[in-house]
Amino acid sequence: MTGGKDTALGTATEAAGRPGWARELLEHLRPAGRDVRRVVDWLAGAVGAEVALRDGAGDLLAGTPLPLDEALAADVASGRIASAAWDGDGRHLRLVRIGHPTGACVLAVSRGAPFDRRASDIVTHTAQVIELLLTAHETQAAGVRLRRATADLRLAILQLLMVEDTVSARRVAAGLWPGLLDAETACVYVLESDPSVRDLLAAECIERTRDEALVVRCPAVDGHVIVLSPRETTAADLRSVVERHPDTLVGGSVWQSLARTATAYGQAVSALAVARFRPDKTAVYAERTHPERLMDPAALRTWAARVLRPLDALPHHTRAELLATTRLGLEFTAVATAKILGVSRNTVRARMDRVESMLGVDFADVTVRAVVHLALHTQINLLDGQGPADSAASARRLAELLSGPAVASWARDLLGRLDPDPRNVRRTLRTWIAEGANAERAAQTLGVHAQTVREHVRSAEPVLERQLLAAGTDLYEVALAHVAVGDLEQPRIAGE
């Protein structure tokens, strides 16, 4: 009776040149229908049977559990036999081996009626479809794993560069991107977009730069894509990408050595603050006058060494680790720093707490952070290859460095840009810095709403051409300017 029913079902559509079951089976190969479980369920209905798809270990992948001869199933799974048939106890069983890239499965079909030609054809062709689907799924999964591993590798390279380990970064990059980091200098660009399109933007950057740039999805900011490139053509490549995404901002650094990738990254983020007010939404960090360049280099070097001297007693590796973490921790939040370095935020805080303790400072004070940042920045920029300063320079203190005529003039000119604003933005900014960059505390001191404080600080950013609401180099330069003109007290540093 079952055989007659199978035949009747098939003849209705054979006149069209293909059995109806074949057309139904092919539908499962369409993109919207590629589901092995649905194919197994369809097979069960098509041949009136119970169907089980098991992996090589005997675990059920789809269908319903079936009592099987495990030794026979193992022989089919291992490939010793390609298929098997068994009749008994009123049941008719077929076992078919299904190979795929990472192993093999066994398709078991059990029904009460014998397998006629139609049922056998359906089982054979269904096994082929399942093999195609498993292969496609594993190929797709392998592609996803490869893309994820490649993205993780790009991030690892960036993290090594952030802590100035250029040797390890080059070794890691050499395997997949030969020559990428052979240059001594590079530019860093940060693209800011809506987080929902960040992956698409990163993929386009990778395609457009043709593996001649390190493209990383920023681990700290969901909407950021970081691009590090030693090629001058990358800027034009990124502009072509941004033209297709009009709501995207781009900030770029000046050329920096690979060891100063963290500095370049900070410059690129700083340039984003300017890009927001540009018609083309792009900006390159302006190589503006920095306060340390207006100070006596020998005196500044010796002062920085004196401030950081308590750390000199540490083993070289430990000292380098603490300094690298602190440099980033002063630029970004603990959470962002942890993501950039690939460590926990508790590790970041523990390292910075240790530096605080050894230097005898309190990083809750913005001016303290600004002074330590100046010392660290000086160490990177001015100490390489420099000999010790003379004893006269060693006697100079921060107050003397900041009171020089060049620094004082720079500070007056910078903060003087805010004077024309009738809202007294300069007073708001000074109070906000004195209160640890906390809008609520500044608002209480000024007797205004916290949102008013934030609006004043935000409105000062384009005037000063510096990003203030996010802690970093820009904020610390403005804090030092306030100290230089006497608007804020000079912080106390134990080693200073």
Automatic annotation (TrEMBL):
<protein>
    <submittedName>
        <fullName>DNA-directed RNA polymerase specialized sigma24 family protein</fullName>
    </submittedName>
</protein>
<dbReference type="GO" id="GO:0000428">
    <property type="term" value="C:DNA-directed RNA polymerase complex"/>
</dbReference>
<dbReference type="InterPro" id="IPR042070">
    <property type="entry name" value="PucR_C-HTH_sf"/>
</dbReference>
<dbReference type="InterPro" id="IPR025736">
    <property type="entry name" value="PucR_C-HTH_dom"/>
</dbReference>
<dbReference type="InterPro" id="IPR051448">
    <property type="entry name" value="CdaR-like_regulators"/>
</dbReference>
<feature type="domain" description="PucR C-terminal helix-turn-helix">
    <location>
        <begin position="426"/>
        <end position="480"/>
    </location>
</feature>
<keyword id="KW-0240">DNA-directed RNA polymerase</keyword>
<keyword id="KW-0804">Transcription</keyword>
<dbReference type="Pfam" id="PF13556">
    <property type="entry name" value="HTH_30"/>
</dbReference>
<feature type="domain" description="PucR C-terminal helix-turn-helix">
    <location>
        <begin position="334"/>
        <end position="377"/>
    </location>
</feature>
